[in-house]
Amino acid sequence: MATTSNKTQATNQSPADFIAAVEPERRREEARQLDTLFQRVTGYRPVMWGASMIGYGRYAYRYASGRSGEFLATGFAPRKAELSIYILPGYQDFGDLLAQLGPHRKGKSCLYIRRLEAIDLEVLAALIRAGLDDLATRWTVTAR
């Protein structure tokens, strides 16, 4: 099977310009804080994925089915209602850290946070690092 295109692809849009346009102002400031945190933890520069996801690092995958592609290694999206934090491939091994994080909801491979000020940012940093390290045991993670 040939490489198939993911719906969400890396773009040339400037992450800084995207963040500068995030509304409301509180969410824009949270996006700035998250950008700083992700850059510190990952050592990667941000890249826009699709219209609203900011990614740090990328990985190429190939499943047993033959499906292959590339996707962001970790990142976030400053949505109106909640911040979406993408930590791949999921949270199956991170229960202790999640218990310390503060109020959140979780999906298969993302966290939903209403207010950044309500969570422990150092615990979030540890989750980002743990997720990236876990991903690297399955796929090669690169800066670009």
Which structural category fits the helices and strands? alpha+beta
- The percentage helix is 25-40%
Quickly count the helices. 4
For the biggest sheet, the summary is: 7 strands, antiparallel
Integer average pLDDT: 91
Radius of gyration computed on alpha carbons: 15 Å
Alpha-carbon distance between the termini?
24 Å
**Amount of beta strand:** 25-35%
Write down the secondary-structure element order: HHEEEEHEEHE
Q: Any guess at the CATH architecture? A: Alpha-Beta Complex
How many domains, in number, for the residues? Answer: 1
CATH class: Alpha Beta
Which labels suit this protein?
7 strands, 144 residues, alpha+beta, Aspartate Aminotransferase, domain 1, globular
Report on this structure.
The chain is of the alpha+beta class. It has a single domain (15-136), classed as Aspartate Aminotransferase, domain 1, CATH 3.90.1150. Helices cover 33% and strands 26% of the residues. The protein contains 4 helices and 7 strands; from the N terminus they run ααββββαββαβ. It has helices spanning 15-20, 25-42, 95-101, 121-136; strands at 46-49, 53-62, 68-78, 83-87, 105-106, 110-113, 141-142. β3 and β4 (83-87) form a beta hairpin. The longest helix has 18 residues, at 25-42.
Which helices and strands appear, and what pairs or packs with what?
Blueprint: H1 15-20, H2 25-42, E1 46-49, E2 53-62, E3 68-78, E4 83-87, H3 95-101, E5 105-106, E6 110-113, H4 121-136, E7 141-142
Antiparallel strand pairs: 1-2, 2-3, 2-7, 3-4, 4-6, 5-6
